[in-house]
Automatic annotation (TrEMBL):
Designated name of the protein: Amino acid ABC transporter permease
Origin species: Amycolatopsis heterodermiae
High-level lineage: Bacteria, Bacillati, Actinomycetota, Actinomycetes, Pseudonocardiales
Annotated spans, Disordered: 232-255
Span of domain ABC transmembrane type-1: 26-220
Keyword Nucleus applies: no
UniProt KW keywords: Amino-acid transport, Cell membrane, Membrane, Transmembrane, Transmembrane helix, Transport
Bilayer topology: Multi-pass membrane protein
């Protein structure tokens, strides 16, 4: 038992490495995940709209893109982009693999987020689009102002789940060989464990991952529950469409 604790739960050693895990590892993990999520969301929306287009020259490239980046293992995509494009883009990024890691994660995320958006948009009743067109809106304006916002709202839990995946997948950028100040949580824990033979830093890194992902998982459940049950209406709150009057002090009450 002592051997177990000294190998995996050396609290003194964990306390020593925690500042480096938080200051460097956590910061870089969040930068990788958040930047990739923003870029992936923008690209994913483009892919989703292209995939829903009635024009084959837009729909098929989106379908091929999605199939490729969802079908390949994430580590393979990261290595191909990080090492393959690294030689081609050396004049732009130099020998720094950090931007290429973000690019790889973003392209992977865009394929999944595009499918999430596409499913959300297709779940909106066709009557919404037809009613918007009947009011004189163009197809693109109706999609942008009516259909897409409703579709995005319905897939918020799935989007948060995708961000959780990005937080975990950011550890794969380790294989590109980051600089010392660019190391994320896993790389710091792995380096310290390799140097000493003590796995406590990896356990500490895992704990930090859990601190990030577990609250987000509960947030997903909360959002999903709110979307399923809807907003609770108070007993004294007027129903939609009921006539109301504004009393003293701006208080609204039903007739």
């Amino acid at each position: 038992m002592d051997q177990f604790f000294s190998t995996f739960l050396d609290w003194e050693y964990i306390w020593q490495v925690f500042p480096d895990l938080l200051k460097t590892g956590l910061l870089n993990t969040l930068i990788l995940a958040f930047t990739s999520a923003v870029i992936g969301t923008v690209l994913g929306m483009v892919v989703a709209v292209m995939g829903l287009s009635t024009k084959a020259w837009l729909r098929w490239p989106a379908r091929v893109y999605t199939d490729i980046f969802r079908g390949l293992p994430a580590i393979l995509t990261i290595l191909v982009i990080g090492q393959g494009l690294g030689t081609l883009a050396r004049d732009v990024v130099g020998t720094n693999p950090y931007p290429l890691g973000i690019l790889a994660l973003s392209l992977i995320a865009a394929a999944y987020i595009g499918e999430i958006f596409r499913a959300g948009i297709q779940s909106v009743e066709k009557g919404q689009l037809e009613a918007s067109r009947a009011l004189g809106m163009s197809y693109s304006k109706a999609m942008l102002l009516v259909v897409i916002p409703q579709g995005v709202r319905r897939v918020l839990p799935a989007l948060v789940n995708q961000f959780i995946s990005l937080v975990k997948d950011s550890s794969l950028v380790y294989f590109l060989g980051l600089l010392s100040e660019q190391r994320e949580l896993f790389r710091i824990g792995q380096d310290l464990a390799a140097n000493t033979g003590n796995l406590s830093p990896l356990v500490a890194a895992g704990f930090v991952y859990l601190v990030i992902t577990v609250p987000l998982t509960h947030l997903v459940n909360y959002i999903d529950k709110k979307l399923r049950t809807g907003r609770k209406v108070r007993a004294d709150e007027p129903d939609e469409g009921d006539p109301v009057e504004i009393g003293p002090g701006g208080r609204v009450s039903a007739w």
